[in-house]
Amino acid sequence: MKTTELTVRHRFHRSDVLPEVKTEHPKLAKVIAWADEHPQVWKIVTGTKSKAFGLGSCVYIGWAQRSMDSEAILERVRHIKELVDDPGRWGYCNSMFAWRAKFTLDHFQDKGFTGGFFQQRDANYPRSCITLDYTPETFDEVLETFCRWMDGYYDTRRITLDGRTVRYIEEGRLAPCLELQR
Fold first, then answer.
1. Is residue 132 a part of any domain in this protein?
2. In a structure prediction context, what are the per-residue pLDDT tens digits for the chain, which is 182 residues long?
């Protein structure tokens, strides 16, 4: 019988901002470096403040939605990085999906930052929908962006945010929500 000894070396790439996040995959090293350059990204993907990209967001595939393992965190960061740095991969480079990722990165630190589920509704059914982040100061901009993005095939009657009407549509024109004017 012969006994041999094998020494194995592993090369890990670790975040300077969130040291518990590490990987052996060289391609993910670029993701870590990008997130370290944009430290709010770590807070976005590990917290629940961002409804669009935070922990539990439906934008991520199942295994990455809620896990705090390095691989899941890096999957969430990778997704945001692609939307911001390579939006053409997701279709039109000025798509709503790229816009909302950039918006979240730009406004995450702003006062009152939150998010919600926006829905277009006709007389009977909900139609186009998406989760978007916003602040009190940017709410109108986000609502207008949603209205430009939503499907134009339906006779839209109102827009809701988390089930609450935020805008009525009058004769094909967008009108401020009467509930919010009180």
1. yes
2. 999 999 999 899 999 999 999 999 999 999 999 999 999 999 999 999 999 999 999 888 888 888 999 999 999 999 999 999 876 665 666 688 999 999 999 999 999 999 999 999 988 889 999 999 999 999 999 999 999 998 878 889 999 999 999 998 876 555 544 333 32
Of the residues 63, 94, 125, which one is the last residue of a structural domain?
Answer: 94
**pTM given for the model:** 0.84
Cβ contacts of residue 19 below 8 Å, gap of 6+? none
Do 154 and 82 lie in one domain? The reply is no
Residue 139: give the domain boundaries: 114-181
C-alpha–C-alpha distance, residues 2 and 55, integer Å: 51
Q: Is residue 101 one of the residues assigned to a domain?
A: no
CA distances from residue 109 to 7, 13, 39, 112, 130 in whole angstroms, order as listed: 46, 27, 11, 9, 22
Letter string b/e over residues 61-93, b meaning 16 or more CB atoms within 10 A of that residue's CB:
eeebbeeeebebbbbbbbbbbbbbeebeeeeee
Pairwise CA distance, residues 178 & 103, whole Å: 27
Length of the chain in terms of residues written? 182
Q: Do 12 and 24 meet the contact criterion of CB atoms below 8 Å apart?
A: yes
